[in-house]
Amino acid sequence: MLRLGYSVLVVSDKAAFGVEILPRVTVSGLRSGNRDNSSALGACCGDSEQNGLILDPDKTENEDKTEVDDVPAFLEYTIGQLRIATSGFAAENIVSEHGEKAPNVVYRGKLENQRRVAVKRFNRSAWPDARQFLEEAKSVGQLRNNKLANLLGCCCEGDERLLVAEFMPNETLAKHLFHWETQPMKWAMRLRVALCLALALEYCTNKGRALYHDLNAYRVLFDDEGNPRLSCFGLMKNSRDGRSYSTNLAFTPPEYLRTGRVTPESVIYSFGTLLLDLLSGKHIPPSHALDLIRDRNIQTLMDSCLEGQFSNDEGTELVHLASRCLQYEPRERPNPKSLVASLIPLQKETEVPSHVLMGIPFGPAALPLSPLGEACLRIDLTVILEILEKIGYKDDEGAAAELSFQMWTNQMQETLNSKQKGDAAFRRKDFKAAIESYSQFIDAGTMVSPTVYARRSLCYLMIDMPEEALNDALQAQVISPVWHIASYLQAVALFALGRENEAQLALKEGSTLENKRNSAANK
User: Which compartment or compartments is the protein found in (predicted)?
Assistant: First the structure.
């Protein structure tokens, strides 16, 4: 559900900006002979009534109402903490666009308190001045808003520079617009994305952070509930002296090409390119889009997947707003407050949750659970034990090679004997003996096995030691970052500890990883 409480200031284009802008083109009547009020994208388009928000005129200065209380204060982390959180910066945890080839790589991670995070690791030469990096990060870290993927902390240790932000699990706007798999983004959701971004920019501007670097569809993320969030990473440059725009020059604000400087007006230009993305479902160069608007060839600009979803007025207003943002002269562009005022009346289906509009699974029943997932939800330790016994050690990478190697030192042989004793105790359900033997294997440190940690975790659960079980499940995930068993056992331990919300997240993570694993195996 979208809840907003902003008053709307309506001004004429000339009064607001002092200039004429591109011709105001309506979406209706683009097809030959189409003289009625239907949409240019087909006679089946929706009616022109807008399902807008009821605005409260008393709520004029309430940007702080969107500030959030459940986000922790900004912290400084050690490189050791973030290495553990990302399983040693494992390649499997990379979520940034260009993977390991990017100069600054973003990883998914999980802190000790189970909070999911995104960790951006900068190129080691990006920020040589540690104080400058820390000051910038702390400044951005003061922002707290439900339209942002908020910055939770940073690491400034030696030549390492990292940022830690809230993790958004439901991909980027680029993914949902340009590379969708199940359904194209609906018109109502596109309008919601535009408004949420405008609100985020207005909040940042009011807090003295009006500059946003390289605003594009990859900077827009979706949270657990499918709500759009603006990444906080764009509020800092990729390096002290680096470029603020990494995209094709065709999408770069014209004044940036002249001066190399980002201004608040440059951010509005980039917002205009995002509006074009939302309108077209493609990444169209602004010059080409403006030519289409001038020639009144809007039909070519609009995404054909949107046919029947919007009225003439809605399409016209959004095209008109995009053209205002893309004015060549920076002073002729609207400010964030004006963007919000223009977008609020256009909102549709405001009572429908974002995850419904997006078709994103949400809630405990969102993903169908496997037998193992169901057992974890019920905390059925007997069934979990049977499944772990059946799986054996086949998920341990290199385990077979280790066991077939003949020339063991005495210490390695003793380590193997400990594991074998632990396995025997595990099978006969002597859990205390199994814990003792598995602990000897782990403490020896000559071999690493996620399965041993998983088995010891279950043993701890069997004797009602959920905190120790959780630690072992986390360690199993450090060793094997995308192993679904580790996430499932974390869920069971968290359920046992009464941490319901965190347990549901771990259960969802385990189910997602298991589904991905099964899909890959079936290809």
Answer: Cell membrane
The domain that holds 508 is classified in CATH as: 1.25.40.10
Q: How far apart are CA 175 and CA 299, in angstroms?
A: 23
C-alpha span between 126 and 474 (Å, rounded): 32
Q: Could you report the average pLDDT of every consecutive run of 10 residues in the chain (523 residues)?
A: 39 33 41 34 34 36 59 95 93 80 85 90 89 95 97 96 96 93 93 98 97 93 96 87 64 86 93 95 86 78 88 86 94 97 95 94 72 94 94 70 48 82 95 95 86 96 96 92 94 94 88 87 75
Q: Which residues pair with 78 in a beta bridge?
A: none
Q: Are 231 and 221 in contact (CB under 8 A)?
A: yes
CATH of the domain at 232: 1.10.510.10
**Residue 239 CB neighbours (<10 A):** 17
CB 126 within 8 A of CB 104: yes
Place of tokens 């509009």: 357
Are residues 333 and 181 in contact, defined by beta-carbon separation less than 8 angstroms?
no
Pairwise CA distance, residues 406 & 162, whole Å: 44
Show which residues are catalytic.
214
Q: Which residues contact 363 (CB under 8 A, 6 or more apart)?
A: none
pTM, rounded to two decimals: 0.78
Token readout for 270 is: 């980039």
The residue behind tokens 């071999």 is 447
Q: Tell me: do 224 and 349 sit in the same domain.
A: yes
Residues 387 and 270 in one domain: no
Q: What is the pLDDT of residue 61?
A: 42
Same domain, 191 and 339: yes
